[in-house]
């Protein structure tokens, strides 16, 4: 692992942040309601990552970049910024989230009736339309100049997928796809999952829900994750931080839309994905191409890049 950006990337990042991209970075910070101090984070990590990904792109090919990390780690903000910078660098890119391929409310209700009541709640593997994700990524990878690719959208305030007529359309070829998701790259457990929280002990005493999730990760989700060429992880210091950040995320949703879960509802909701989040934090830093380690204050503290010898 390299614990720093290549020197040429760092130099170019400082140059661009202080010159041609300074105004754009300031505008991005304002639009996303970020503190002015966030400029340092962008200069030290966001911008170098965008430049590093641009270097990994090969002309005539589509690079699919996975951005994984627990809820509230900043995946969407990072994806938006990288997409904006790549456009300035002359690369055609788009963002696509696993959150936007959740099964519809009616589909999840059917699963809850046929398999387990907990599957009514979106979030865990088994509650996504994996085939829709595969088809969308494949269409983006094969896009040409005249292509028009619909990108699925999910409305969290309504807990349902947006009608197809309301999906945005990506036009033209795609150099880099930024594909983000909280459970992106998660691996199945090798041993039967034991309960780790109150929800699993009281509402899944038989382990049926947990085993179903594990089976999903061993099946179609592997096919979806195989489409990622380069994996980037935003690694939280622990599950406790994830819970705090996720509550802040929900609070902002309530402020923006007037709809969202209260803290008591959210505590139970978080327990749905605690198991996979903990597994990702312990597993993915060992093999991801780029890991950005976050501190408890939500700021990035360290970057680690996998070397070619480690990946071979």
Task: Describe the structure using short key phrases.
single chain, 312 residues, alpha/beta, 12 helices, 10 strands, globular
| Percent in helix | 40-55%
Beta-strand segment tally? 10
Please tell me what the overall shape is.
globular
The whole-angstrom Rg is 19 Å
> Helix-strand pattern, N to C?
HHHEHEHHEEEEEHHHEHHEEH
The side-by-side strand order for the widest beta sheet comes to 2-7-1-8-9-10
**So how many helices?**
12
- Beta-strand residue fraction: 5-15%
Taking pLDDT < 50 over at least 5 consecutive residues as the criterion, the unreliable ranges are none
- What is the makeup of the main sheet? 6 strands, mixed
Q: What's the overall average pLDDT, rounded?
A: 92
Classify the secondary structure makeup into a structural class: alpha/beta
* Ends distance: 13 Å
Question: How does this structure look, described?
Answer:
The chain is of the alpha/beta class and 312 residues long. It has 12 helices and 10 strands. It has helices spanning 7-18, 22-31, 38-56, 75-88, 105-114, 130-141, 198-203, 208-218, 220-225, 239-257, 263-283, 308-311; strands at residues 63-68, 93-97, 148-150, 154-155, 160-161, 169-171, 176-181, 230-235, 290-294, 300-305. Strand 9 (290-294) and strand 10 (300-305) form a beta hairpin. Helix 1 packs across helix 3. It is globular. The two termini are 13 Å apart.
Task: Give a short synopsis of this structure.
With 312 residues, this protein is α/β, with parallel strands linked by helices.
What secondary-structure arrangement, pairings included, does this model have?
Elements: H1 7-18, H2 22-31, H3 38-56, E1 63-68, H4 75-88, E2 93-97, H5 105-114, H6 130-141, E3 148-150, E4 154-155, E5 160-161, E6 169-171, E7 176-181, H7 198-203, H8 208-218, H9 220-225, E8 230-235, H10 239-257, H11 263-283, E9 290-294, E10 300-305, H12 308-311
Parallel strand pairs: 1-7, 1-8, 2-7, 8-9
Antiparallel strand pairs: 3-6, 4-5, 9-10
Helix pairs in contact: 1-3, 3-4, 10-11
């Amino acid at each position: 692992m390299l614990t720093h950006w290549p020197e040429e990337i760092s130099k170019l990042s400082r140059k661009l942040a202080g010159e041609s991209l300074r105004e754009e970075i300031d505008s991005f910070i304002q639009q996303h309601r970020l503190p002015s101090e966030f400029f340092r984070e962008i200069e030290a990590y966001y911008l170098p990552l965008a430049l590093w990904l641009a270097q990994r792109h090969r002309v005539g090919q589509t690079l699919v970049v996975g951005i994984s990390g627990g809820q509230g780690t900043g995946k969407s903000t990072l994806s938006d910024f990288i997409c904006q910078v790549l456009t300035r660098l002359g690369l055609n890119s788009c963002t696509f989230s696993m959150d936007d391929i959740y099964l519809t409310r009616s589909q999840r209700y059917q699963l809850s009736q046929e398999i387990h009541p907990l599957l009514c709640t979106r979030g865990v593997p088994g509650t996504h339309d994996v085939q829709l994700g595969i088809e969308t990524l494949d269409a983006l990878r094969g896009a040409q100049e005249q292509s028009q690719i619909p990108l699925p959208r999910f409305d969290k305030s309504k807990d349902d997928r947006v009608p197809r007529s309301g999906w945005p359309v990506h036009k033209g070829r795609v150099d880099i796809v930024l594909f983000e998701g909280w459970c992106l790259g998660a691996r199945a457990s090798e041993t039967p999952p034991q309960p780790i929280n109150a929800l699993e002990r009281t509402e899944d005493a038989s382990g049926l829900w947990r085993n179903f999730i594990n089976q999903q990760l061993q099946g179609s989700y592997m096919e979806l994750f195989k489409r990622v060429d380069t994996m980037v992880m935003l690694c939280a210091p622990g599950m406790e931080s994830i819970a705090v950040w996720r509550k802040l995320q929900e609070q902002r949703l309530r402020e923006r839309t007037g709809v969202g879960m209260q803290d008591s509802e959210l505590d139970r909701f978080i327990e749905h994905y605690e198991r996979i989040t903990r597994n990702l934090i312990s597993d993915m830093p060992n093999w991801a191409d780029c890991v950005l380690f976050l501190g408890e204050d939500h700021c990035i503290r360290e970057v680690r890049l996998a070397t070619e010898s480690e990946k071979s």
